[in-house]
Give the backbone structure.
Amino acid sequence: MKVKVSRRAHFNAAHRLFRPDWDEQQNNRVFGKCNNPNYHGHNYELIVGVTGEIDEVTGFVMDMKVLKDLIRNEVEEALDHKNLNLEVPEFRELNPTAENIAVVIWNKLRPHIDGEHALEVVLYETPRNFVTYTG
Amino acid sequence: MKVKVSRRAHFNAAHRLFRPDWDEQQNNRVFGKCNNPNYHGHNYELIVGVTGEIDEVTGFVMDMKVLKDLIRNEVEEALDHKNLNLEVPEFRELNPTAENIAVVIWNKLRPHIDGEHALEVVLYETPRNFVTYTG
Amino acid sequence: MKVKVSRRAHFNAAHRLFRPDWDEQQNNRVFGKCNNPNYHGHNYELIVGVTGEIDEVTGFVMDMKVLKDLIRNEVEEALDHKNLNLEVPEFRELNPTAENIAVVIWNKLRPHIDGEHALEVVLYETPRNFVTYTG
Amino acid sequence: MKVKVSRRAHFNAAHRLFRPDWDEQQNNRVFGKCNNPNYHGHNYELIVGVTGEIDEVTGFVMDMKVLKDLIRNEVEEALDHKNLNLEVPEFRELNPTAENIAVVIWNKLRPHIDGEHALEVVLYETPRNFVTYTG
Amino acid sequence: MKVKVSRRAHFNAAHRLFRPDWDEQQNNRVFGKCNNPNYHGHNYELIVGVTGEIDEVTGFVMDMKVLKDLIRNEVEEALDHKNLNLEVPEFRELNPTAENIAVVIWNKLRPHIDGEHALEVVLYETPRNFVTYTG
Amino acid sequence: MKVKVSRRAHFNAAHRLFRPDWDEQQNNRVFGKCNNPNYHGHNYELIVGVTGEIDEVTGFVMDMKVLKDLIRNEVEEALDHKNLNLEVPEFRELNPTAENIAVVIWNKLRPHIDGEHALEVVLYETPRNFVTYTG
């Protein structure tokens, strides 16, 4: 009996979308207002889903308290109230689009999740834009 | 690295559920209050999801601004503030149930989405009723 | 110890904004797409608030079940799945704007609420547009 | 043309997470505050999804009114305003975790859904914790 | 320049509505399913609002982190994962209706809020039922 | 018959809370993570409420389309995708707390609202923190 358990968390951060190897005109054409060199920011809402068999002893796929702590330690500590471009090593050479942030979060969590469990990351950049990554 | 990017939009419209080849009694039995010949209406909330590889150059699966404009031009222009039965050609002989509206929206968007990308349409008829179509 | 108790309900309906004594051009200028003669519609979300002293015997300002039934009988029965312009007598000569619908709902409920209690109606025409009327 | 139709419902209930064959210390270590012997409770939000072909005659995969009534009769009647541990037979020897409640709900609904339709149950224990079961 | 700052929090709890001096029949007539002697429960969502002048030095009416900690220490510690009837002294002889819980929370917070600030408590018992108390 | 009409909008921005006349230690003590010199950011959700008599001719207190355009021109143009500290003149010497942003928005809108109408600004810095200013 496979069940997906999902936990919602949130962090906020500043970022800027651009490629350092492009000139300003090309960055503006592709990234528009998101290329503001003074940064803008978001309240990111994160939903982490872990799919696996229900443990017959506990009735849990994974203890939600453990998942909550894992998200806090691995994701919120790294990203909350940060400038993603300047302060998060993964984005030193990677454009912090919602897509790439979701992949980075997935990679941060994957080593800490039971290898037999599937992992899904849903990341809301705004209430109207969100992305889903399942590895 | 395949990611689904999702964009939320909305439109409102009037509609009526009925079959012209049925008598009123049969229409009422099957469609209930939704068969009101004077129409009723909804705020439809739409979530369009596009799944594909992240472009390594931009970090995008698909530019959200392009997706936003596409939804406005192909869906909102055609359906917003409309009477679906009377004013939208696709429903001239097709009952505008949430299921059928989702399929119509998917068909409107599909030609404009990169052929290698998967397309998903989620349509909320009310906050309590919604449908999902993936082609 | 005065407390406001609030109950959320919902109904959906078709409507059209226009004045019969104006020509089409003037109606379009003022009411825009809302003047579509074939109607459009909304999922209206309604919050009814009743303010009064807590009854020391029950701990209630007003029994929520009673308020729920009152909203169903007086508001949902009259407005749900209706064409407001054609089927609701109050709007025969009154433009069914959100403002006017809120006043009509308030007037429908007021006689059924304890005279010592204040009454508030909040009506969401869409998740982005709403109105508040307190008499 | 397969579509998933989804219907949202809700119930509230008291529960306690524990194993009678464990001592209090072990129950507290694994279940924490959820092991309170005097119970705590939740507003459970439930989304039931049914996937199948659109019926060409009605335009429905499944009549939402039928699904709504089914959820009320099979799920809400059994669980709403109940103590899950004491009053719901399925949990007499089964820990009422969100995972197990979702499976119990799925099993209650499955016999009443067309065998050619897939069934999905999403259960929110809180707005931040939810589970998904598809059989 | 008076501003109201509001902070959202949440807790969940079991409760039962009844009067010990009434017989079962009368309790059932007034409190219905909420009189279940085995308890039921809710996810309470709480919004605490504090109104006062903006401090010209900090730009704060009240530091949200202080308000967050205050709610955790005074409200969540006392009510989260509790049986309100059995474990919360204020409800030993007071029916734990939403109205009374809001007043109890207000009384717990009031001594810790600057005397020149107004205090408002909004308590959602469910997403559809909520109460507001301002002292 | 006075009614409040409310319109929801949104913008996102980067900001930093600090006083230039304080040293880093004092800024950190008072503003914590919000003092990050590299900035962080939010999706601000804005609700603008205008209270006045219903115009008997139109049924409007104020045309929502006019209010929507006013918010876009006066607020979104000035604040969306901006660094509040560096790019918005009002915050050159004013700490961009939620309280102060709400007052700035109110001051931007007030001259464009009918003098007989009351104006209210509700600003969500996050879904959990928000402020209300009524002048």
About this structure: Chain E has one domain: 2-133. DSSP finds four helices and five strands in chain E. Strands of chain E lie at 2-15, 40-53, 82-83, 118-126, 129-133. The longest strand of chain E covers residues 2-15.
